[in-house]
Design goal:
The complex is a heterodimer of chains A (about 80) and B (about 575). Chain A is mainly α and about 80 residues long. Chain A is built from four helices and no strands. Chain A is globular. The termini of chain A are far apart. Chain B has about 575 residues and is an alpha+beta fold. Chain B folds into two domains: about 375 residues, FAD/NAD(P)-binding domain, CATH 3.50.50.60; about 140 residues, Glutaredoxin (3-Layer(aba) Sandwich), CATH 3.40.30. In chain B, about 25% of the residues lie in helices and about 30% in strands. Chain B contains 13 helices and 28 strands. In chain B, a hairpin with a 3-residue loop joins strand 16 and strand 17. Classes of the chains: A mainly alpha (about 80), B alpha+beta (about 575).
Chain lengths: ~80, ~575
């Protein structure tokens, strides 16, 4: 997938989800994930993609650290 | 309440480091309330696009009347980035020096998600280039530089300040304008009108024309502040920054210590409150603190912006030609507004000049519309993509953007989705002009419809060698016209091109031809160029015997291998609508 192709597919995915609406978003993303898994070249890629998507704890930890830093920074200015 | 919750700081507003000259209104010689002179072309609007169009026409020897409603160049924060393509155009207009002298060149930028850098991007800046990919400078400077150039051409360009067009009638042969000035009203007649009167174009409204496309709900506050510049000049984007959570913030530096800050308003924020200084200043202070910018600063100007992606479906309406924001409104993300308008002016100027001089049929102007509408649609497509990332228009775009930004921290493969998709030269791939000529066995990047690719070369002339670039060849001729590159082993142009020059002289079309050899081939009688870097021939995919024909606006019209004079003459005459002559 070239960056241009990725960009186009990303826009199509966002537009499609917008059209289906918030109430169908979860179902749409689940169906998309199943199709994407089925079309992956091998299990190794699939495992890596699942692990990357599941790394929510790390993303959440970053978010909380940032929020704490921001609170401290802003408190120091008051 | 200010973003950080702390008390609003008191900061004194300061002026821009620029004092515009105020220009008096003038009246022409009137006969019964009518300008006694009929004008070949009137440009309405003295912004970057109107000025570029006027200079372009003047360069082709056409007399231009420019009407500007205001009494000076613009104020406030508008266009701030000028692309390499626009600089190439400025070079042909004789205004490049001013841009390079004032502008801040930059080649890339950085994007952050919360505290973490998630993208470092750079624009093409290879060793073949003469000009930087982008420079930053305020629109008042852009207009002043172009105005200075226009004022160097007083025989060709007349500027009337404080002249507001309030009426327009178009018939088969004439455009009639009603003009309002502080000194009185009058009417004038013109053969052609260029409507470069901006996003709220009176001419567009008066002719009942409607822009088509998308208007986005996302709003951005634009703040200019005064503060010493830092190096290098980079563009910064902050997504969900800690002290302005949920927002997106852009930071550009401009010359003379002006910083432009754009930040996204959250849903539900009131626009009027959002631009109140007591709400803006703390947010800017928090941003600068986060960036580690601790020095003194002062606000200059605050405004609000909503992204539009709109275009007229046609830019030619009989004798009225639309250009710039009057023709299309492009989102600011990707800096395509002023740059695409300057490209409009460049495309239009030579075509209208040829029509006015009787060298071409007016059907040539239809290609202005089709080429530039296609360019606008491409610009809009990229601009919309950028907008959808910078100001997500739905829950889906917002949800997906969060995922991209989170993943980008550890997964470089998704970072290209954050790329700001900066403007680049458009290729007229579906141009009706390109279709007039055939091109065989072409490789390399110099394809018909594309802007001339850049590369250094050495010019040998009068026994002297001079290092320059391919785009410099467009201004070497005594008068602007078509440029022909003859690739070959000998430092002289081929017979077919010599013959083309002779025949086109009869048609009053200037042909500026130059031979391009692979290596130094002595100091002959004719000027020629040689490929001292060994990069020019591969870049063009050229072989000895190749001929590349370039339009006055620097786009490639056609390419041939060992053409006959008839091939070339017929090709140009078809473009000009004179195929049967």
């Amino acid at each position: 997938m070239t960056p241009i192709d990725l960009d186009e597919s990303y826009s199509l995915l966002c537009q499609t989800m917008t059209r289906l609406g918030r109430s169908e978003a979860e179902r749409f993303l689940a169906r998309f994930a199943v199709m994407a898994l089925a079309l992956m070249p091998d299990r190794g890629v699939a495992d890596r993609v699942i692990a990357a998507a599941a790394d929510i704890d790390r993303a959440e930890a970053t978010r909380q650290d940032d929020a704490a830093n921001a609170r401290n920074a802003c408190a120091g200015l008051e | 309440m200010p973003a950080s919750g702390r008390a609003a700081e008191q900061r004194t507003f300061v002026p821009y480091p620029f004092s515009p000259t105020r220009h008096e209104a003038t009246l022409p010689h009137l006969v019964a309330g009518r300008d006694s002179r009929r004008h070949p072309v009137v440009v309405i609007g003295g912004g970057p696009v109107g000025l570029a169009a006027a200079i372009g026409l003047a360069r082709h020897g056409v007399r231009v009347l420019l009407l500007e409603a205001d009494d000076s160049v613009c104020s406030g924060s508008r266009a701030i980035c000028i692309s390499r393509r626009s600089l190439e155009i400025a070079d042909r207009l004789g205004a490049l020096e001013g841009f390079l002298k004032i502008g801040l060149p930059w080649t890339g930028g950085r994007s952050f998600y919360r505290h973490q850098e998630v993208l470092r991007f750079s624009m093409p800046a290879d060793q073949n280039q003469k000009l930087p990919p982008m420079i930053n400078l305020a629109q008042y400077s852009i207009e002043q530089i172009l105005l200075n150039r226009a004022q160097e051409l007083p025989d060709q360009i007349e500027i009337r300040w404080q002249a507001r067009v309030t009426g327009i009638d178009v018939d088969r042969d004439t455009v009639s304008l009603a003009v309002l000035t502080p000194l009185g009203d009058y009417r004038l007649e013109a053969d052609w009108v260029i409507a470069a009167d901006g996003g709220r174009s009176f001419i567009r409204e008066a002719l009942g024309l409607r822009l088509e496309g998308t208007t986005y709900e996302g709003r951005y506050v634009i703040v200019d502040i005064r503060k010493p510049n830092r190096t290098p000049t980079e563009r910064f984007a902050y997504f969900d920054p800690p002290c302005n959570p949920g927002s997106t913030v852009l930071v550009h530096q401009q010359p003379e210590g002006v910083w432009r800050i754009d930040y996204q308003l959250r849903d539900g924020e009131d626009s009027d409150e959002a631009i109140a200084p007591e709400n803006v200043i703390p947010r800017v202070a928090d941003l600068l603190e986060m960036m580690g910018e601790t020095g003194p600063w002062n606000p200059i100007w605050i405004g609000i912006y909503k992204a539009n992606a709109l275009t007229l479906p046609r830019y030619r309406h009989e004798r009225v030609l639309f250009a710039g924001d009057a023709a299309h409104l492009v989102p600011i993300f990707g800096v395509r507004g002023a740059n695409s308008g300057i490209d409009d002016a460049d495309n239009l100027a030579w075509k209208l000049a040829y029509v006015i001089k009787g060298v071409a049929q007016d059907s040539l102007l239809d290609s202005y519309s089709s080429e530039r509408v296609a360019a606008a649609r491409e610009n809009l497509r990229y601009g919309m993509k950028s907008t959808e990332f910078m100001a997500p228009p739905s829950f889906a775009f917002d949800l997906m953007r969060k995922a991209v930004l989170e993943l980008a921290v550890n997964h470089p493969e998704v970072r290209s989705l954050i790329n700001p998709r900066q403007t680049s030269a458009v290729t007229y791939s579906e141009s009706p002009l390109k279709g007039a000529l055939s091109a065989r066995e072409i490789t390399g990047s110099a394809i018909p419809g594309a802007a001339l690719p850049e590369c250094p070369l050495t010019l040998v002339a009068g026994g002297e060698r001079r290092r320059l670039h391919v785009t410099d060849l467009l201004t070497l001729g005594a008068e602007p016209g078509f440029t022909v590159l003859c690739f070959g082993d000998l430092p002289s142009i081929c017979v077919a091109v010599t013959d083309l020059g002779t025949r086109m002289r009869n048609d009053r079309v200037a042909i500026n031809a130059i031979a391009i050899t692979r290596a130094f081939s002595g100091t002959g009688n004719e000027p020629y160029g040689f490929d001292h870097t060994d990069r020019l021939y591969p870049l063009f995919g050229a072989r000895a015997g190749d001929v590349v024909l370039i339009r006055p606006d620097g786009h490639i019209l056609g390419r041939w291998r060992d053409p006959s004079a008839i091939d070339l003459v017929t090709g140009i005459r078809r473009v000009l609508g004179n195929a049967s002559s």
